[in-house]
Design brief:
Shape: globular
Strand content: 15-25%
Number of strands: 8
Order of helices and strands: EHEEHEHEHEEHEH
Largest sheet: 4 strands, antiparallel
Oligomer: single chain
Helix content: 25-40%
Radius of gyration: 16 Å
Distance between the termini: 14 Å
């Protein structure tokens, strides 16, 4: 049995794609996922499955959400190693006087190469900053996530990927929850 973390994009945001977490939990349990746990209303779902392949788990969850709730919800599935890599590889977390409220991680549906940073044209978003690390983009906003065009829609359009963004507090809490599941 393997634990997966499904990051659902765009649910329960501004009244769109509304899904109650207890209903989602029940729907996923009904198709065979075990130990289903949700974290906050924005679509972070831990599931245990015999399926080892994260993208397969994500596809199954996406299909079930559409079948039960009628929403087409992009889903990125990650493992504990992805969350641990955020702390090891973020170029921003250890900066002096860093405001973690302005740090975000975009989780991407596939590995990115270094040329992807050029494709994003990050310089046009200065003083916001971004750095690519495999299937993650670390983002440091100057003012905040609500005041920039460097968002999930822009990333998806420029890189032709599925992306979902989580703030640093959520990334921290998800890692803690993942670690507690494996004890």
């Amino acid at each position: 049995m393997k634990t997966h973390l499904a990051l659902l994009r765009g649910i329960n945001v501004s009244g769109h794609n509304m899904i109650k977490m207890d209903a989602l939990k029940s729907a996923l349990e009904n198709i065979g996922f075990q130990n289903v746990v949700t974290y906050i209303q924005s679509g972070n779902v831990f599931v245990d499955s015999d399926e080892e392949n994260g993208p397969s788990v994500g596809f199954t969850i996406k299909q079930e959400i559409f079948k039960i709730f009628g929403h087409d919800v992009p889903t990125v599935v990650i493992g504990m190693n992805d969350l641990e890599a955020c702390f090891k590889n973020s170029p921003y977390i250890n900066l002096p006087e860093v405001d973690t409220k302005k740090l975000y991680v975009a989780f991407i549906s596939k590995e990115l190469n270094n040329s992807a940073l050029n494709e994003l044209k990050i310089s046009q978003f200065k003083p916001d900053e971004a750095s690519i690390d495999g299937s993650r983009i670390f983002i440091k906003y100057d003012i905040g996530a609500g005041k920039t065009r460097l968002d999930q829609k822009y990333i998806e359009k420029k890189l032709n990927v599925t992306a979902t963004i989580r703030n640093w507090n959520t990334v921290t809490n998800l890692l803690t929850m993942y670690q507690e599941r494996t004890v």
